[in-house]
Structures are given as C-alpha cells and as structure tokens.
C-alpha cells in the first residue's frame, strides 16, 4: 500500500467513526428522552388520579358546609387544605416540554387554572369565608353563593383533570 492509500484509509476510518458516534449519540439521546417521557407520563397519570380523589373529598366537605350554611348551623369549623393537591410530576412534565406536545392551549389553560386555584391563598380564602360565616360577618346567601361556586369549580376541575389525563395516556 502506498502512502496516500494509508492516508485516505485513515481519514475514511476516522470519518466513518465520527459519523457512527454522532448516530449513536442521537439514538441514545432519543431513547433516554422517550424513557423519561414514559416514566413521567406514568407518574403524572398517578398524580392526576390522586388529585381526582382528593378533589372529590373537597367536594364532599363543601357539600357538608353548604348543608350547614343552609340550615344555619354555625357550630362546625371548616378548614380547606388545598396544599395537599399534588403538582410535582405535573411541573416536571412541563419543565421537560412534554406538556405542550400532548395538550392543546385550552387544556393547558385549564390545568394552569387548577394549579393556581389549589394554592395556599385559595385555601385561606375558603377557610376565611367559613370563619366569617361562623362569626356572622357575612350573611347566609353570600356564604352559600361562594360555597356553591367553589363546589362547582371543584367538580369542573375533576372533569377537566380526567379529560387531560386521557389525552396524556392516549397520545
């Protein structure tokens, strides 16, 4: 073999090795991303299932509050613990840019609305409302209006979470 044949063989081998390494990098990166996505989707679905059950409990508590307000019973103390709403995997799913691949803007808006409502200020508002009702700072009709609005919002959130969960699972 001549000198130039060795040079071309060496550069050819290096070139093929470089192309193969880029291809291998792309494959492992894609495989890792798909694995992370599947794991996150599985955890997001579990988180949504927990949140659906949690919101059903909140609806029950609101129903009890509505009954108490309706009959004028001010003996019970109500505390609405919205902090228990889980959002860890939903946020991680969002941070990995997977959320926008699965959901349309309307679904993203609904999820954002739920996440913003299920916060400490939302919890404090409802607990404060019931405290004001118990201490006669607000009337029965006003307390009923807010409690029913909150109950209906929670029922709507349960439906929205179910629909969003189905979209994540099905796509």
How does this model look, in words?
The protein is mostly helical. It has one domain. Helix content is 82%, strand content 0%. The chain is built from six helices and no strands. It has helices at 3-71, 88-95, 99-102, 105-117, 120-134, 140-170. The mean pLDDT is 89.
Helix tally equals 6
Give the termini distance in whole angstroms.
Answer: 57 Å
Query: How are helices and strands ordered from N to C?
Result: HHHHHH
* Radius of gyration of CA atoms, rounded to a whole number: 27 Å
Mean pLDDT: 89
- Would you count the extended β strands for me? 0
Strand content: under 5%
Largest sheet entry:
none
What number of structural domains do the residues give? 1
Residues in helix, %: over 70%
Low-confidence stretches: none
